[in-house]
Amino acid sequence: MNKKLKIILYILLALIIIIAGISLWYLMDYSPASADANSLINGTSEVSVSKINNGLFLDGPGNDSAVIFYPGAKIEYTAYLPLLINLSADGVDCFLVEMPFNLAFFGTNSADEIINNASYNYSNWYIGGHSLGGVMASRYAHNHFDKIKGVILLAAYPADSLENGSVLSIYGSNDKSLNKESYDDAKKYMPSNFTEYVIKGGNHAQFASYGNQTGDGVATISAYQQENETIKDILLYINGS
Questions:
Q1: Is residue 93 within 8 Å of residue 59, measured between CB atoms?
Q2: What is the largest CA-CA distance in the chain?
Q3: CA 28 to CA 230: how far, in whole Å?
Q4: Model confidence over 99-110: pLDDT tens digits?
Q5: pLDDT score recorded for residue 220
Q6: What is the tens place of the pLDDT at every residue in 23-41?
Q7: Which CATH number does the domain 34-240 belong to among 3.40.50.300, 3.40.50.1820, 3.30.70.890, 3.20.20.105?
Q8: Sign of torsion, CA 175 215 74 146?
């Protein structure tokens, strides 16, 4: 092997190592859940939390409806426990999915394992998600409206048609992470009668409990207020659908 070819091979090898290192760093980097969120991992007096193969099952007093929830990109899934454990306490059981590398892109069909489990006997299945999790949840629903009664999008928009289904969309008025132009353009994929709620003073990050998010707007309401408003809107949607 001549010297010139060796140099080229060494350069290519170095580039491969650098790219692999950057990719690994990106996949392993994420926003951790707050201590308050993680303190709910064992449930409450009203809601039991149990580990399942691909996440957590939040079992409250309800028996009829359940929400399968996909977390936002690079966010530790337990950051959504405060929101979902209170939704479960109000009668809608929840399945919080733990995504590979904290990216719903790698687990779009995670809902299959839950819905196809014969031990879960719900009459109404809903799927939802936050940010990228909402995009991937809508993609799953696009192909499975025979199983899914409705889609719940938190600061998210669909990339595939949901015209044949039912959709609830919620976002905060101070959300600067949500691309509003893309959101408005994606309304062409929504059913004509989709439900939209804008939480005044809410932002992107306060749908979960993981701290501030770079590029997001400043919320002028508390995380507790945004959580309660979100739960109220979801319950109105589910009870009316």
A1: yes
A2: 74
A3: 30
A4: 999 899 899 999
A5: 98
A6: 444 444 669 999 999 999 9
A7: 3.40.50.1820
A8: positive
CA separation, residue 5 to residues 12, 15, 17, 18, 151 (Å): 11, 15, 18, 20, 55
**Among 78, 102, 79, which Cα is nearest to 27's?**
102
Pairing between β-strand 167-172 and β-strand 195-199 as defined by DSSP bridges: parallel
- Residue spans per domain, the chain: 1-30, 34-240
Q: How many of the other CB atoms lie within 10 Å of CB of 20?
A: 10
Q: What is the pTM of this model?
A: 0.89
Q: Identify the helix (H) or strand (E) that includes residue 136.
A: helix 132-143
C-alpha 103/C-alpha 101 separation (Å) is: 5
Q: pLDDT digit string (tens) for 175-223?
A: 999 999 999 999 999 999 999 999 999 999 999 999 999 999 999 999 9
